[in-house]
Design a protein that fits this description.
With 329 residues, this protein is of the alpha/beta class. It folds into 2 domains: 161 residues, Orthogonal Bundle (serine acetyltransferase, domain 1); 103 residues, Hexapeptide repeat proteins (UDP N-Acetylglucosamine Acyltransferase, domain 1, 3 Solenoid). Helices cover 45% and strands 12% of the residues. The chain has 8 helices and 16 strands. Strand 15 and strand 16 form a beta hairpin. The radius of gyration is 27 Å and the shape is globular.
C-alpha cells in the first residue's frame, strides 16, 4: 500500500511538472510569431501553392512504371493487358505531372509577381510534351542499362541493373528532370533530383548535360554540377565530384548562368574519390582519372592521371620494428 501511495505521488508531481512546462508554450509561440515579420528570416505564408512531396514520389514511380514496362507495375503485365495498363499509367501520369507543373508555375507567378504565364494551359502543354518524349527517354535509358551491364562483371543481367542499381535510378530521374529543366519549368526538376539524391546519395543537377551510356558504379557521394557537360560512354565511381571552384560570397548573381563545372569528353573513366573542378577544365576523350586525384586544369585525350604511389608503414607489435613498402598502382 505504501508503495502505491509513493507511486501515486510521483505521478501527480510529474503531471504538475508537465503542466508547468506547457504553460510556458504561449510565451514561446508569441516569440516565434514575432520572428515571422523579421525580413532577415524566411517564411512561406500566403496563397501561393506549393508542391506536394508525396505527389513527386508518386510521379517518379509512375514514370518508371512506363519507362520500364512490367518492372515496377503493381500487377502482372502481359500481352493481354499491356495496352490497358499503359493507358491507365499514362493517363494518371499526365494528371499528376500537369498538376505539379501548374503548381510551380503559379507559385512563382504569385510569389514573385511575374508577368502572367497562363499557368494552367502551359502546364498542360508541357506535361503533354514530356509524355510525348517518353519513347526517346526509353531509348536513352536502355543505353544506360546496357552500359552498366557491359562494364560491370558483377551484373548478372539487364534486369538486375534495372531493379537494383542506384546509379540507374538517379540517372532515370535526372533524364526526366533535365527535360523539364530544358522546358524552363522552375523548382520541380530540382525537387525531383533532390528526392533521388536523398534515396541514392547521388546528386545530379538537372541542368547538367549528359550523353548516352552514362554509368555511375556504386554511386554514393557522387556530385555532378549544373553546368557540367559529360559525353557518351562515361563511367564514374563513388565519391566523384564534378564541381565548381570556390567563389567569393558576392559572385553568386554574377556567375549564376556562367559555365562553372567541367567538361568530360567521350569514353572517360573516373575512379572513386576523384575531384574535378572548374568551368574551363576539360578531361579529354578516352582518359582515365585515378582514385583521389584532384584536378583543376585540363588534360588532353588519351591521358592517365594517377596519384603518386604512396608508402605504407607496417608496425609489428611483437618486435616493435617498422618497415616501409611502396604500394604499387
Amino acid at each position: 500500500m505504501d508503495e502505491f501511495l509513493i507511486d501515486k505521488a510521483a505521478c501527480h508531481t510529474e503531471r504538475e511538472n508537465i503542466s508547468e512546462h506547457r504553460q510556458e508554450l504561449p510565451k514561446v509561440i508569441d516569440k516565434i510569431m514575432a520572428s515571422m515579420s523579421d525580413e532577415n528570416c524566411f517564411a512561406h505564408i500566403g496563397d501561393e501553392p506549393i508542391h506536394f512531396t508525396t505527389s513527386v514520389k508518386e510521379m517518379i514511380d509512375k514514370f518508371r512504371e512506363i519507362l520500364f514496362p512490367g518492372y515496377f507495375a503493381r500487377e502482372k503485365v502481359d500481352t493481354a493487358n499491356i495496352l490497358y495498363n499503359t493507358g491507365q499509367a499514362v493517363s494518371q501520369l499526365y494528371d499528376i505531372l500537369s498538376e505539379q507543373i501548374i503548381h510551380v508555375l503559379r507559385h512563382d507567378c504569385l510569389r514573385y509577381e511575374l508577368q502572367c504565364a497562363e499557368c494552367e494551359p502551359r502546364g498542360n502543354d508541357v506535361a503533354l510534351e514530356v509524355i510525348r518524349a517518353i519513347p526517346d527517354l526509353r531509348r536513352s535509358l536502355a543505353e544506360d542499362v546496357k552500359g552498366a551491364y557491359d562494364g560491370d562483371p558483377a551484373a548478372k543481367s539487364h534486369d538486375e541493373v534495372i531493379f537494383s542499381y542506384p546509379g540507374l535510378y538517379a540517372i532515370t530521374v535526372y533524364r526526366i528532370a533535365n527535360l523539364l529543366h530544358k522546358l524552363n519549368i522552375p523548382q520541380l526538376p530540382r525537387i525531383m533530383s533532390e528526392y533521388a539524391h536523398s534515396l541514392t546519395g547521388i546528386d545530379i543537377h538537372p541542368g547538367a548535360t549528359i550523353g548516352n551510356r552514362f554509368v555511375i558504379d556504386h554511386g554514393t557521394g557522387v556530385v555532378v554540377g549544373e553546368t557540367s557537360v559529360i559525353g557518351n560512354n562515361v563511367r564514374i565511381y563513388q565519391n566523384v565530384t564534378i564541381g565548381a571552384l570556390s567563389l567569393p560570397p558576392n559572385a553568386g548573381e554574377k556567375l549564376r548562368d556562367a559555365k562553372r563545372h567541367p567538361t568530360i569528353e567521350d569514353d572517360v573513366i573516373i575512379y572513386s574519390g576523384a575531384t574535378i573542378l572548374g568551368g574551363d577544365t576539360i578531361i579529354g576523350a578516352r582518359s582515365v582519372v585515378g582514385g583521389n586525384v584532384w584536378l583543376t586544369n585540363s588534360i588532353p585525350p588519351d591521358t592517365k592521371v594517377f596519384m603518386e604511389s604512396p608508402h605504407l608503414v607496417y608496425k609489428n607489435q611483437d618486435t616493435k620494428k617498422e618497415s616501409r613498402h611502396e604500394n604499387p598502382v
